[in-house]
Amino acid sequence: MNQRRLPLISGEWIDRSQPIEFTFEGTRFTGYVGDTIASALWASGQQILGRSFKYHRPRGILSLANHDVNTLMQSGQKLNIRADVTPLEDGMTLSAINTFGGVMGDRASAIEFFSPFLPVGFYYKAFNSKRLFPFWERLIRNMTGLGQVDFSTPHIRTAKRYDFCDLLVIGAGISGLSAALSAADLGADVVIVDESARAGGSGHYQLGNDPLQLEKTNELLSAVENHPRIRLYTQTQAAGYYADRWIPLLDRDRFTKMRAKTVIAATGAYEQPAVFRNNDLPGVILSSAAQRLIYRYAVKPMNRAVVLVANADGYRAVIDLITNGVTVVAVVDLRESSLKSDVAQTLEQQGISIFLGYCVYEARANPGRDGVSAAVICPIDVNGNPQTGFRQTIACDGIVVSVGWAPAANLLYQAGTKMRFNKRLQQFVPEVLPSGVFACGRVNGVFEFEQKLIDGHRAGLEAAAHLGFDSQIEVTISPELESPSHPWAIVEHPAGKNFVDFDEDLQYKDFLNAAQEGFDNIELLKRYTTVGMGASQGKHSNMSALRILARITGKTPGEVGTTTSRPFFHPVPLSHLAGRGFTPEQRTPLHSRHVKLNAKFMLAGMWQRPEYYAQSGKSREECICLEAQAVRHQVGIIDVGTLGKFEIRGADAAEFLERVYAGRYSKMKIGTTRYALMLDETGVTIDDGMIARLGAEHFYFTTTTSGATAIYRELSRLNTLWRLDCGIVNLTGARSAINLAGQYSRDVLSKLTDLDLSSVAFSYLAVRETHIQNIPVMLMRVGFVGEWGYEIHVAADSAPALWDLLLEAGFEYDICPFGVEAQRLLRLEKGHLIIGQDTDGLTTPIEAGLEWAVKMDKSFFIGQRSLQILAKRPIKQILIGFMLDPNFQGTPPQECHLIIHGNEIAGRVTSVAFSPILNRHIGLAYVKPELAAIADLISIRLSDGTIVSATITPTPFYDPETSRQQEDVTQLQEVTV
Amino acid sequence: MKLMTCPINGSRPISEFFYGGELRSMPDPNMVTDEVWADYVFHRNNAPGIKCEWWCHIPSNSWFIAERNTLTDEIIHTYLWGEVV
Amino acid sequence: MIRRISPNHDRLQSLNGTWRDINGMPSLVSIPGDDRIVANLGIADLSFLTRFGVKGAGAVAWLESQKLEVPDRANTWKPLPDGGIIARLGLTEFLIEDSLHSSFALRLAEACQSVPAKVYPVLRQDAAIVLCGKAIQDLLRQTCSVNFQALSLAEHPVILTLMVGVSVTIIPILPDRYRIWCDGTFGAYLWETLLTIAQELGGGVVGVDRLI
Question: DSSP secondary-structure letter at B15?
Fold first, then answer.
């Protein structure tokens, strides 16, 4: 084991005093604290770390930068473990995903032989058959998938939090650290984040064995760590850019919503692979990955390397390899000439062949197919085409690739940055940045070490200036001496398997085919080939795809353009996104009373309301029925505290109400109440309630529970707009309301108050303010459920005491608490409609039978003008009451069942219930006016198609003469229909 | 998350606000034809551009006007109704 | 005296604390262990304090006529003589809360029986909470998007915002003492939510005797 572990490397991330035991695919391995899974496995000589998505080809380390999707693993219940960056932990039992029979002998790799039959666009073409799709689906589900879900995995929620800073620097590499220091020194409060376990970025590993660079990096890092105004968060991802510099920061434990006043993207660049046959073999590795292996984890990447280069970074990598014991047998430079001629000379003197103007044509696998055995190289012509006649084979066990970079500009794009393709640098760079957003370092096209320091400094100064700190910005950046990226590191091969996208197993010819089929625009190309749609989201493949499309279509990369960058930058666990889940809930002050009475609660909007009160041995329907009967026969009590309750005062109070409601209120006598109907501008009914006049300039009014918040908000807006002399106070939460209803309600109340409750002194629909045992209350005689009753409004903190008094006083009358369902039944027996149930978004007062509540001759009210127009037109439907046969057996209709007449829809049911007091099913429905004559029959169609016949009946069904509101009601009269 | 500046309470995330539609003046109902009234009630101008809109800061129930570029979502200015700009 | 019940009454009932009636409202005055919690992160229910609200264009003049010193800027507060608070909510609305030693609320409610034009009394039935301790910012960071640490407490700011989805009024009295008011019907939800988070942060319920 650990045959590739190097002797102590200065600054290494591993702690050799803390070994860790773990298993991979059933085999035991050892690593160290500080290792990632991939580095520990590679150190032990394990090269196959996973299998590719489509062809199940063996794959190893590519980037070690969180782009190595092919090395996704699973450990027990934990899914989506990214082996290249996930720290090794004790006891991990890892397995590769996406294999049949393990990573070493994946049977599904046989698919490769079928690859000619699995061209690009395969998914669209092959699985389109409706008949065959179920077969394909089963097959695909078995073969694909990136892990096995254990359904007993606990649901984890991690708390989110907010955070704030003056400047957020994303990326703690050279330029980022420099920027943070410059801004903090001028007084800014800075947060700097980096997704890696430690800060420093490439300053710690793209060394070219230069000790000065390492020293400078550590100096910067130390300054940042000790600066009082800088907070450094490592292992933290900036997952996206949202409006006004709102950036989600993700670390292992939580999701932080950071609001930054300015943002600097120092996010660097993704190293790009070269495209050649078998470039996906374990052992073909990006140069920065090789350098990370060496300097972070003290792992020798290979023994004998061929290094493919096209930039200065490549030569630095060669030196790093040689310094740490790797034999470099050849350097293959795609360019005809390079500036590193002195370095090249030194290398040649050491016996390393330099091949200028050459490419790697093909990587050869070793017999075990778990690594490289040789590189086949050949010269390339001016267009980058391989001259295979002159090829050579060089034995090696690894190919290191350093051909170019793509900027990690995702968050800049999301912020709305306009990018421009720089031909010299061969990369997109920011051209127009949004206000408050800055970029530095490689994402800004600056690659040289010293220049990155200066560029970071400049960005820090600009951010500080934007924040209002005094800063002189006079900084010049020297242009790059050589291009860091090659325009065409792609080599065609007749036998293919030269991969462009490793996540999706896309080869070079797949792009040619797609373009040929007409998908020759970057958006179409992406969706047809699926390039960039894998788990690394195109970080290593989008640029190559873009270059290929440019070449095919004869455009420049700038003209081809990029597809839209969207959050999240790296995957975000659902546990972090879920957070705690705040779901506000409202409770009336009487909630604990309902709990004690065994209420079954239901959610009405945000309110918890008793649906009914459970009694042992009785079903829900029985309980509701008993509650309703109690109200009809003796007395019931219900908490209606969820109603909207408002007070309006002022000289223009009446005028205001006249404008927003359809009825007339200005002439109401003090001490009376009136039904109030509210319409919108189109004449549609939107709410109803009661208006009570308490004084000449003082009204109190109620709305429905669900309408309260929106109505108060809109009335406030109208009050702002109209500037009438009045003020509206929202008492919905401040007051509780209780309905006491039934023939004994007056008896109960009279035990508690001195107020004269006779019908002469306190008539139907009157309002009185009084005291119940020194609790100030407002009483309204209401008729919603059709019995003598009072709606009692009281301050919330006194409601429990009042409830207790009422229950105590009502005990001798068998007072019965009743809930929402019983109330709905009782009101239906009276034919009272509920806005939103018996009306919808198009119902006008005419259709709902509420014309009596509309006074068209007022000077103005909302909806008036529209009603004038509607009055000229025939109405399409009208609300009627219906009853089923007295001896009806079978399934009764439900709300929304349709009324059918001659094979056409002629209406629908809005409310229906069985009335215990009438012993029949009753309901309300809309029907066409010509079918609405009393005693006519209507046909209601149930869900299964059965037709139920009903008779149109006048409403109210119960007590049509409203005798229950008159004096001398002592006994329930025989009710005939 | 987008920020909106309430003229009274200051800069807050947009989740603290309620959008109340474009600022439009109601024509005199007594003076307009049915067609003009129907146009006012049902039609809205959806063309992108700088619009004056009603917005409400929910926790304080403060209504105000925001001048907003509906194409770029840039909020240019917020002010209380009736204030001279 | 009328028996008043706090919106948080049920939540507190289940704790093993000592109770006392304050202003007619049963109130949790102490609970075992709260002396240790109070320095770290304590949450207590102050719904028993008497309160009065008023708004309108004439409110400033009327309050001054009642001999109160009114905060001159929107969203600021002033202490009242004898320890209460008068807060200006926005431009023309006011919340007056008494301490245990003052009775402005009662006096103003009586004076409100006949108010001049453009003065509108607002019945206040808040769930009132106090947070105390050094971990307050941790709790606020999990529940509210306002940057409280950027506020200058010397300016006596009043913040009207959303906290865990509920409209609240927040006054930072001191860096380790914050007052929060919300509509009483949301009181149980707010209390329960804040308490759960406070407990995770090593805090909990404290009795009012610890604070007053």
Answer: G
Residue A332 has pLDDT above 90, yes or no: yes
Given a contact cutoff of 8 angstroms between Cβ atoms, the answer to whether A942 and A891 are in contact is yes
Residue C186 contacts A where some CB pair is shorter than 8 Å: yes
The residues near C74 (Cβ < 8 Å, ≥ 6 apart) are B8, C88, C90, C91
For Cα atoms A419, A424, A428, give the angle at the middle one, nearest 5 degrees. Answer: 20
Q: Which of A720, A731, A872 to mutate to test the interface with B (most CBs of B within 10 A)?
A: A720
- Which pLDDT tens digit goes with each residue over B17-72? 999 999 999 999 999 999 999 999 999 999 999 999 999 999 999 999 999 999 99
Return the structure tokens found at A578.
Answer: 């879920």
Q: Which of the four pLDDT bands, split at 50, 70 and 90, describes residue A123?
A: low
Residue contact B3–A243, C-beta within 8 A: yes
- This prediction's pTM: 0.92
Looking at the partner chain, which of B8, B59, B62 has a beta carbon nearest the beta carbon of C161?
B59
CA of C53: which chain A residue's CA is closest?
A729
Strand bridging mode B10-13 / A898-901: unpaired
Contact A713 B38 (CB under 8 A): no
Looking at residue C66, its pLDDT comes to: 94
DSSP string, A855-900: -TTSS--TTHHHHHHHHTS--S-EEEEEEE-TT--SPPP-TTPEEE
Q: Is A481 helix (H, G, I), strand (E, B) or coil?
A: coil
Domains contained in chain A, CATH given: 1-154 (3.10.20.440), 160-270+406-467 (3.50.50.60), 303-401 (3.50.50.60), 499-574 (1.10.10), 608-642+732-837 (3.30.1360.120), 645-731+843-859 (3.30.70.1400), 874-965 (2.40.30.110)
Q: Are residues C136 and C200 in the same domain?
A: yes
What is the distance in angstroms between the Cα of C181 and the nearest Cα belonging to chain A?
A: 13
CB contact under 8 Å between A717 and B56, yes or no, is yes
Q: Within this chain, do residues C162 and C196 fall inside the same structural domain, yes or no?
A: yes
Task: Please state, for a pLDDT cut of 70, what percent of chain A lies above it.
Answer: 96
Nearest CA in chain C to A649: C120
d(CA A757, CA A762): 5
Contact flag C165-A582 (C-beta cutoff 8 Å): yes
Task: Provide ipTM, 2 decimals.
Answer: 0.98
What pLDDT sits at residue A873?
A: 94
- Per DSSP, the three-state class of A178 is helix
Q: Which residue of C has its CA nearest to A588?
A: C185
Per-chain mean pLDDT for chain C: 94
C105/C34 same-domain check? no
Long-range contacts of A548-551 (CB under 8 A, 24+ apart): A548/A490, A548/A500, A548/A508, A548/A511, A548/A512, A549/A511, A549/A515, A549/A520, A549/A522, A549/A525, A551/A488
Q: Which CATH superfamily is domain B3-79 in?
A: Folate-binding superfamily (3.30.2270.10)
pLDDT of residue A105: 72
- Contact flag A864-B61 (C-beta cutoff 8 Å): no
Whether the pLDDT of residue A544 is over 70: the answer is: yes
Q: Are residues C137 and C32 in the same domain?
A: yes
CATH number (domain holding residue C29): 3.30.1360.120
Minimum mean pLDDT among A137-146, A508-517, A898-907, B76-85: which range?
Answer: A137-146
Name the residue of chain B whose CA is nearest to C89's CA. Answer: B60
State the pLDDT at residue A368.
86
Query: pLDDT tens-digit profile of A723-741?
Result: 999 999 999 999 999 999 9
Contact A242 B1 (CB under 8 A): yes
A866:B37 CB<8 A: yes
Q: Is residue C153 part of a domain?
A: yes
Same domain as C162, residue C134: yes
The boundaries of the domain holding residue C76 are: 51-122
Q: Name which of C145, C146, C160 is nearest B60 (Cβ-Cβ).
A: C160
